[in-house]
Amino acid sequence: MPKPDKNDIERLSRGESTRGKIGNRGVEHRLTQKERILFEAAKRQGFLKIPVAGIRKNVINIYRLWCQASDREFITR
Fold first, then answer.
1. Listed residue (47, 61, 68) closest to 4, CA to CA
2. Which of 63, 75, 76, 77 has the fewest CB atoms lying closer than 10 Å?
3. What angle do CA 20, 66, 18 make, to 5 degrees?
């Protein structure tokens, strides 16, 4: 699988089509407003802080893809 592009990951997180053909139509990748806040904070801080409840696997998957695209280590807390 080719390395994902950061722009494609951003587009995927907003529910838009990607140029790199990443993602799956059967899986909802669009982030909610709360998940978007967590994702943006994770990009700044370098790790994803997962709350106890109220989060879908979408934000974890999007952050993992973003880490691959930016050659960062995937860290969650």
1. 68
2. 77
3. 25
For residue 40, pLDDT beyond 90: yes
Which token pair is 21? Answer: 């053909």
Token reading at 52 = 């106890």
**26 CB contacts (<8 Å, ≥6 apart)?**
none
**pLDDT tens for each residue of 29-39:** 789 999 999 99
Reading the block at residue 18, the tokens are 């990607």
**CB of 13 closer than 8 Å to CB of 69:** no
Give the model confidence (pLDDT) of 13-26 as tens digits: 888 877 766 766 66
What's the distance, CA 18 to chain centroid? 13
Single pTM value for the model: 0.86
